[in-house]
Write a structure and sequence with these properties.
Helix content is 36%, strand content 24%. With 85 residues, it is an alpha+beta fold. Strands 1-3-2 form a 3-stranded mixed β-sheet. A hairpin with a 2-residue loop joins strand 2 and strand 3. It is globular and about 40 Å long.
Amino acid sequence: DLNKLLQQIPECNSIMTTGDKATDTLMLSMPEATEKPKIGQSSKAYFAERELTLYRMPSSSRAYPLALEKKAEAYSQLFKEIGLL
């Protein structure tokens, strides 16, 4: 129950997913008009009485065909945007 979880984390305003299944599952909880983010991008949603930024990141799996350096760059950018770096 994402709504209940976010009530317990009042300062959370970003959610990150990797992979199509995780992103599709998250989108089931979002308002109907919410744009599904593309890999390496973000979108905005209003949910649980707050604005959220939804991030969809490249899979960390070796099976995902993107150079490790490019994956690391994408995650570094995300961490900078949300204030973790």
